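Re: folding output
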Amino acid sequence: MFHIRLLELEAEILAKEEAARGLSELTPECIFLLDSVEQEIETRLGDKAPPGWRGWLSYRRHKDSLLVCRGKSFNIGGMFSKHCAGFDVANGADAITDYQRGFDVSPPQDIDHLLLNFGEGNKTRAFLWYGENIAAYKLIFEASTEECHNQLQNAVVDACGWILKRPKHTTLMDYLKQAGTQDSTT
């Protein structure tokens, strides 16, 4: 067990280094993966939303990464008020305004979120990270961009399930192993 945990930590360190280097230019596979996850989530930060809406939203960050988190609708004031999707926190409407103005928006510490980004080693790789509070991101999925579309979508669904359920009797990694997602992270 100790040896397996050390291998997992080493893989996570290598993934962080690759993701930190990033890509000089997104490959078509990367763009496809970003678009497909974004389309599956459907609602983006700042999109029009019905009053009382709650659900998942996504948004692009630095044009080469995608964040996924819980959202709810906010009444954006003014003479012609409308409801838009923002973070599921008290000041979620502020993030909508900042994002629409083109500012870099970080997910609030109050909500768990997922980050999809890419790195380059021997092959271009997709990384899915889980973030909560101020803790460092945890790598929950890693695979070559050429062959990971379905596995990535399943990993996003499984991680969103974790965020909704937050089972107290198990850790995130054990939950994902039971769901069949974690075996792709080496």
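--- second protein (sequence, then structure) ---
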Amino acid sequence: MRRNKCGSATIAAGLLAAGLCFTPPGATKTQAKDSLKDPAWIDKDWTQWTEKDCYNVLMKSPWSHVDNYAFESHHKMVVSGSYMTLVQLRSALPIRQAALRRLQLDKRYDKMNAEKRRAFDQLHAHDLDPSDHILVYIENWGSAEEGALRPRYTALILSDCRVVLPTKTKAVKYAPESFSTLQNEYEYAFPRTIAGEPIPPSGDSFLIVDLGGFLVFDAKTHQVALKSFRDSGQQYNFKISDLMYKGKPEY
């Protein structure tokens, strides 16, 4: 996670901006991005991925960022609570393959007879179909002591500082009335083009996911309320040259 040249003041042009602190008071942040030797997405066909391979693709690959936070007791110098945030490019082919392969392993696909395997294949025939949107998946976990971080509005920031908002924000798992939940999951669907230009535009080095203010829900419909985007200073940069898979960028 890092800031690009488009700071809050620039994004605020035509939008609401807020200088919110990224790392909560009293929390220590680390990033779970270990360098992997012989990554599965380079060396193996996805149909041969193991459970560990799937985990590495979903959590440690160029298509995901994971931030961990720990709260320490000032008296005992021990961790008193923790939480984690996962930001993932869910529409990227290797992410979809890892999700499908993990399901295969869970259902013992490799040991199925021909009839059961055929039924499974029919049920999941479209799992690997390309998406006409860039899908950004964000999941927050929290310990019982601290709870999970609340979900936020999300945008893509282009290199010329244009802000691209999602066309749809979908709750995968969340109870709006309970902000003390230990887990919440949201998926944000962004257009792949804007004014006939691809997103990200040709020449951009990063796909930048920017988190804004806390999501607000309509009291009647319980759907996400439309609000002006408020930059929180929390940003995740996906380097496009690292997103190459089978000879082309995937996101």
